[in-house]
Design goal:
23% strand, 12 strands, 302 residues, three-stranded antiparallel beta sheet, alpha/beta
Amino acid sequence: MRLREYEYLLAIARKGNMSLAAQSLFISQPVLSKLLAQVEQDLGVQLFIRDGRQMIPTPIGRIYLDNAQKIVDMNRNMELSLREASARCEINLAFPMVYSGYVTGTVLPTLHARHPEVSIRCRICAQGHLCDGLLRREFSLALGIVPTQSDPLLAHRVIGLNQMVLAVPKGHPLETHAVPQPGGAYPFIEAEALAGVPFLLPAPGSYSGRYAEQFFRLHRLRPSVVLHSPMTGLLYQSVASGAGVAILPSIPLRHMNMEHSVAYLAIDPQQAPRTVALLYRRDRELSLQEESLALAMRALYG
């Protein structure tokens, strides 16, 4: 193999001694001497001159060695590039817009610090389409709510909990009148207190939109609506600015930098929290990087 010949003859030039070169290569001196003689015979030139025990490259030998070094270096660079490329990992992750601040602003910096070889391909996807997208292999992972009737082909890693709450501007009168609940995550506000309060409503077809409509019907409320928006993030921002209140999922506010401008109030003390999870197909194993992503998500969700 030519590459081995190059490496062996470069060792002779580097050590300047046949015996030392053979030792560095973990071969016998006769084997190395025979290889050098064969290369010189094949090329029809003398590559080294013996001066006692010293091996000195001839002018032709220096040309040979310079080019041999370039070839060896190119081979090593190619192997390094291949190893780096094989170590890179692309994760295709889908999630609803409401989790964008949590994923891009909190999770990804932490994951990149641990696994700089990982590239995340993000896809914004409605909660209702996550499971179908996974089953059709449109993406490999999805962050969202675990369905009540989960498909047997899907598995998940729990990230945190989520419930539908009333988001109000910090210091709003409703926050003042809300009553702390034993064991509850948020103080409770009666539905009757919401009459006449300006509301910001999500899209009717979304989970939040359907939940809000059912809540209004159950409590016979006719809310004063100042904004309809399919963009959940815009609703949070509008609440923070004091435009109104909104029924939304309890995403940890610190991921949106709104912990000092928005407060959550419970509107249904009997509501069971929903499970936020990293969903994936059961017929595949998570890679080391995907496992690390799941652990980072759970640790940072709050």
